[in-house]
Amino acid sequence: MFHALSWSVVGVLLALWSLTMWLLHTVAVWTVSSAGALSGAAGQAGSIDLPAWIPTAWTEPLLALAGGLGALLDGLLQAAPALAGGLSVMAWVLWGLVSLTLLLLGGAMHLLISVWQRPRRGSGTSMNGASMARG
């Protein structure tokens, strides 16, 4: 009975892991695939209007940095949809490794239950009760 219970727990954990990985993969692929639509907004980072009370000596380097980062971010967002295929491979590899780990954990629990349920030797009793009769 303990064997069936332990493998049932492993099966439920495997099903939950598969569902979680499927959901994460779906959200990640959707995010990466739609990232190219955001690429136009990243290029406008250099046109931020800062308050007039901030000295221009401080704002010019910040705006130049924002413009450079905007161009970098724009390039990354345009390349993001191409990463969706690699994301699928990574998801399958991760799912396989965790699933294998869960199956190995189930095998280890099976072995521990078998050892735990094995009759112990040297406990003072034998199978036919002869030591109890001598008494």
Task: Describe this entry's structure for a reader.
It is a single chain. With 135 residues, the chain is mainly α. Helix content is 74%, strand content 0%. It is built from 5 helices and no strands. It has helices at residues 2-34, 39-42, 56-79, 84-117, 130-134. Helix 1 (2-34) packs antiparallel against helix 4. The two termini are 35 Å apart.
Topology:
Blueprint: H1 2-34, H2 39-42, H3 56-79, H4 84-117, H5 130-134
Strand and helix order: HHHHH
The helical percent reads over 70%
Overall pLDDT = 77
Class from helix and strand fractions = mainly alpha
Uncertain residue ranges? none
User: How much β-strand is present in the residues?
Assistant: under 5%
Distance between the termini: 35 Å
Please tally the β strands and state the result: 0
Largest sheet: none
Radius of gyration: 31 Å
Global outline: elongated
Number of helices: 5
Please supply descriptive tags for the structure shown above.
135 residues, mainly alpha
What does this entry show, briefly?
The protein is mainly α and 135 residues long. It is 74% helix and 0% strand.
